[in-house]
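Suppose you are handed a protein chain with no further information: no name, no annotation, nothing but its sequence. What can you learn? This example shows the usual starting point.
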Amino acid sequence: MILVTGAAGNVGTNVVRQLLEAGEKVRVMTRDPGDRSFPDGVEVVAGDLTRSETLAAALSGIEQAFLFPVFTGIGGFLDAARQTGLRHVVLLSSSAVTFSTPGLIGEQHLQVERALAASGLPWTFVRPDAFMTNDLAWAPQIAGGEVVRGVYGNAALAPVDPRDIAAVAVRALLDQRAGEAYVVTGPQSLTQIERVRIIAETIGRPLRFEEVPREQFREQLLRHGMPAPVIDELLDGLASRDGKTAETSPAVEEVTGRPPFTYAQWVAHNATAFLPAQT
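A reasonable first move is to predict its three-dimensional structure. Written in structure tokens, the prediction is:
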């Protein structure tokens, strides 16, 4: 049986679905089993990665696990995993760990990777670049108008569909690809301006990207509750990519045997999120 943590997230929901489609037995661990619904056939247990006393029962009878990164409490999970005989952990990490300057988020992911590597448990690291789903943050602007406002419109990323991140993780589990680390990207280097254009073409509406001053955008993010250090790291990262082509990785096709989803395919799959609410 395979344990999936973070099973309600963008990647975890797809990991659960794809494992079930492959005929695997799946258990998900969640803080409140009655608070969410999961597909038929999934065993749901109570557990919290930050509360080590809940983990032994959740891991009992489990052979492999998909681990959502929790930056506090990783030691408790690893202790319980060793005690219950877990044979393989596939960790959702971040491509930021490969950067010359990983930054705040990258350093946190590195700490989890290092703890897992030092635990003696067989591991696989799945290191996605920016999620395509991050662009759902534009949905309110698109649903309510024709302009997406932001900074560094010519900053390029190679965003990846969470379905592809999950597919790499699932193959790592099924094939027991221990000791491997995969940087996972989408198939295209795309600027923010280009991504807004693709959304417009896909949903059949005129849209454009409008540049706003960095400080104005920063203030907006602060008002939405994002911590200042995270904002500055985000904006500095965009600035460093401005006018440059993002690197793409062949990992999705190499591991899964099929090409990754394009940005246009992701938009089509999520088109209703960008449409005005029905009244």
